[in-house]
Amino acid sequence: MPTPSQAAVTTAAPRGLRGHTPRRSVLFFAFAFAVIADPVSSVAYAIEAALRALHGDLALLLPTMSLVVGLVVVVTANYWQLVRRFPKGGGAAAAAARAFGPRWTFLPIGALVVDFVLTIGISIAAAASAVIALFPGLAPIRIPLALVLLLVVAGLTWFGHGGRLLFAVMTVAFVVISVAVLILGFAAPHTTGHSASTAGPGHSAMLAVVLAFPVAMALATGIEAPSTAIAQLGQLDDTHRRRFGRGTLALVVVIVGGLTLALTALAVRLHIGIPGTDSTQIADIAHAAAGPGWLYSAFQLTSSLLLLAAASSSFQAGPGLLKALSGTAETPGVLPPVLGRTNRHHTPYWSVVVYLAAAAVIILAAAGQEQELVLFYAVAVFVSFLVGLLAMTRFARREGKPALVWVNGLAAAAVAFTLAVNLLRGWPMLSMLAALLIAVGLYVRWNRAGRPTGIEDVEARAEAA
């Protein structure tokens, strides 16, 4: 769920994109496909999370993931409105401040801080799982492998944003390879699995779907990225930033929704159930579709690289947010100034260390298993979604737009239900508690600092920097 690379910005031109600079279409391609790296990477574990919540019932998997994609569309529609209202960036934090007052800014900020940590942890763990599925001999060193990958990704942030030019390429490569796997899987699969459908009739099946889909809402993480990332596009005017943001949101729905439903349908068609200890469901789908040859290897390689790119994105966005909260020489901050210290590549290295340590702790706690983290993942970011939806509902009421009031209100109810179901599972309460404690802590420090102005634009400042 994290904000994307600034690489697209660094290659762009002054306002208007004049002279020898890339065309807007090239800039949009680089920006959009870097932004959607995180939500696209969520496909690697969200479908399996739903199947596990369904206790392996393949007959209910497609209805469950269809419901998930439907809610993703609803949340995306809200961020479509946010981009229109805040073309300079800011997302849910800016909306909360304008709708309810600046103190409410800290709730979505606290949620995003937790979400960035979880994105790093789950993406690194999933990347390690993808590597192990390709090379099963590495299974005994799962945790050391994940920690090494974590250190590598964290280390690359030392060099700033330059390496993240590859984000868009990684995303496109994964999509292209996935489409090839899907075509082969539906037309001429290498083999099929042995999992049988076990759906129960009537109400019990409906209840199973309703209780299972919130777990797979990890698929929605990253949807908020375009609404904040457009702050990077300082060389464009508000109209073009809106177009870039909304175009990227449309790509999220089409690519993430399309891949999710197609891979789910293929899993059902090929009877691919809950994977073994040293594999993943998405790896088993690719193996059944393409066999053990080069296409399967390419699928595993591109999925692991995309997951590492998603982790790297949070290693940029998370420390960037802490840096923005630490203030500047001219403006007092909420956090200690040490978190804003940067190297010559503009990387806030102490903030990177904070995220590195936090991600390492959760990887160790989950024994390197991404499915252990999915429940926590779909909680924190939904706090941000809910605040944003409530803010947009209030704006619609103020402006006398009853249709939008109903749409946003129903969407807020759906998000609140998803959040409540996940919290009722018990352990995800830790994710919510962490987000609330961070929000309260930031609010207290903001008060002690004399309530410096501009806190509602902290996300936009973090991206613009």
How does this structure look, described?
- It is a single chain.
- The chain has 465 residues and is mainly alpha-helical.
- The protein has helices spanning 7-10, 24-35, 37-41, 43-53, 61-85, 91-100, 106-134, 142-156, 166-187, 203-212, 225-229, 238-269, 281-290, 294-325, 349-365, 371-398, 402-423, 429-448, 458-464.
- Mean pLDDT is 84; it is low at 1-21.
Short description:
The protein is an all-alpha fold and 465 residues long. The chain is built from 19 helices and no strands.
Mean pLDDT across every amino acid position: 84
Taking the alpha carbons of the first and last residues, their distance comes to 19 Å
In N-to-C order, the SSE pattern is HHHHHHHHHHHHHHHHHHH
Q: Helicity level, as a percent range?
A: 55-70%
Assembly type: single chain
What radius of gyration results from the CA coordinates?
Answer: 21 Å
Shape: globular
Please report which band the strand proportion falls in: under 5%, 5-15%, 15-25%, 25-35%, 35-45% or over 45%. Answer: under 5%
Q: How many H/I helices?
A: 19
**What would you call the structural class?**
mainly alpha
Major beta-sheet overview: none
Question: What keyword list fits this structure?
Answer:
mainly alpha, disordered N terminus, 0% strand, 465 residues, 68% helix
